[in-house]
């Protein structure tokens, strides 16, 4: 019975090809637009998180600040092996743990200079590097040698250096004296998102030498979890455990460490060491806010487009019912129930909605795939906003299906009112109608 | 047959003899001699002029005093001209190079690659020669450099030694053993700087009890930023002992007060 109804509805759709193609085309266009926007936002978020988790943050970070005087601050964790042991003991959800020195320095080559956020790493202790970093020149393992640096392609281009060249980095120590170090470029990696424009990896001891730190001092312990969703709970637990073990722990504050370092911590009236436990979301606070804002804009756009769709459907169906009044009257006269008329109209719209939105989603997927394959470069001025250097659309089947169903559902809901009006027509009135 | 043999003998005699490659020992000796000729062993004071040419900018001439206490590996530069640079200085103590800026009153630790006063000069250019101590040398060949027959050597830095450039090529006059040309490279093989030493002078050193050679004129050409170069003239050398407390931060700071 349902199959027969579907056949009748499909036949009716094909009988009014022009009108239905117009309506289906509008639905397809709106769906394609929404899918593309969603895929772009998802692509931005994925690139940003991949970049952040490689360069800047773990799922949970145990960092901190050391203040020699109340007006100064350095992103340091002293006696980190003891803290590391505590993290390993209290976080069974851990996948792996790394510890990196944190710093900021001016890098000077023979022909150019730029500011760099430094991460002092022990390359043997960075399992994600081999997975996420694509070395285009040099060898990743050479980063274990003293006085070496790994740059990303954009930085190497800007500094006009290649593997074997030397860059001088200059930075103020915790006591305010400027120190410099010569670092040999041992590897150049492909850029990993926006953050790689200004983050570089330096052999761990080189950062310690630059800042005059001892071997038991690091910048932060990055904890990578098997389930990233557990990060807030792990952070809360670690904060309590670290405080219990005798460290002074900072209050939770969803800001990246460098913002705290620049503004908040130097203005606080304390000296010595304090530990700060953050999550990746905290460290990516501002970027996340930007993504959320973009998602908000996408939803506003979705609502506006849906309103347009609803008005379009109401209008088109009203015309369709007017055109088909005599047909409805005949159907009613030969005994078709009102409910059945309603059902047929809803079914027609459902078919139209599903096929239109599915076609739109398919077109969007094809366009996104094509653009991904072409690797279209984003202009430098826009890179900051898109968090990408090449346009990348992330197609998530679940999200696409949700958009298709949502738009098809809205189409069906919009069709209910005109369909009810059609079903309420009296057979005699309908048959007398001159269409 | 006899004629043929005689002709062959004549031809062999007329042909220039192929240069004999220097053995590793001979190369070591050349490098050691280069160092030894420039070694003073005692104190050193010199008045220097640096003329820096930078593409698109006005040429700047600096006057500076160079102090050395080679036995203790100490070195100090004090800029005296132009007025804007007067009082600025560099002090090398225990392998650390410190720069003092009187405008801020602050000291900053710098590296061997530091461009002295922002020119193409490096600290090592004004220090005594330590090639044998810092590099391993290899003979490349015998060449001609203008009118001079020279030995072309390639020096590679020894592990753990901090120098401005890890690979250096030298062109050494065979007759006088004066270094005439130098090219410096990064480990990537990129040529960074070319230097010429057209004039060498010697002074008698009481501490060495012998002659000390020094390049009276040095010309450095930046190979990365083409068009940038620096000329150094070394004048008024004084090899008498310097004050004991000269190589201190306090002494340098006092000069700008």
Mind explaining what this structure looks like?
Chain A contains 15 helices and 10 strands. By secondary structure, chain A is an alpha+beta fold. In chain A, helix 2 (17-55) packs antiparallel against helix 10 (285-323), helix 2 packs across helix 12 (338-374) and helix 2 (17-55) packs antiparallel against helix 14. In chain A, 43% of the residues are buried. Chain B is built from 4 helices and 13 strands. Chain B has a 13-stranded antiparallel beta sheet with strand order 6-5-4-3-2-1-13-12-11-10-9-8-7. Classes of the chains: A alpha+beta (435), B mainly beta (257). The A-B interface holds A 110-111, 160-166, 168, 170, 177-182, 184-185 and B 106-114, 162, 186-190, 192, 222, 224-225.
Question: What proportion of the residues of chain B form beta strands (DSSP E)?
Answer: over 45%
- Physical arrangement of strands within the biggest beta sheet of chain A: 2-3-8-5-7-6
Number of helices of chain A: 15
Radius of gyration of chain A: 30 Å
Tell me which protein chains meet in the greatest interface and how many residues each side has.
Answer: A-B, 19 and 19 residues
Overview in brief:
Chain A is of the alpha+beta class and 435 residues long.
Which features does this protein show?
heterodimer, A: 435 residues, alpha+beta, 6-stranded mixed beta barrel, B: 257 residues, 13-stranded antiparallel beta sheet, 15% helix, 46% strand, globular
List the helices and strands and how they pair.
The complex is a heterodimer of chains A (435) and B (257).
Chain A: H1 2-15, H2 17-55, E1 60-67, H3 80-90, E2 94-108, E3 113-121, H4 127-132, E4 135-138, E5 148-152, H5 153-159, E6 166-172, E7 178-189, E8 199-203, H6 204-211, E9 220-225, H7 231-244, H8 257-264, E10 272-279, H9 280-283, H10 285-323, H11 325-333, H12 338-374, H13 380-386, H14 397-423, H15 427-432
Parallel strand pairs in A: 3-8, 5-7
Antiparallel strand pairs in A: 1-9, 1-10, 2-3, 2-6, 2-9, 4-7, 5-8, 6-7
Chain B: H1 2-14, H2 24-38, E1 43-53, E2 60-69, E3 74-81, E4 89-93, E5 96-101, E6 106-110, H3 131-134, E7 135-145, E8 148-157, E9 167-173, E10 179-185, E11 191-205, E12 210-222, E13 229-238, H4 249-254
Antiparallel strand pairs in B: 1-2, 1-13, 2-3, 3-4, 4-5, 5-6, 7-8, 8-9, 9-10, 10-11, 11-12, 12-13
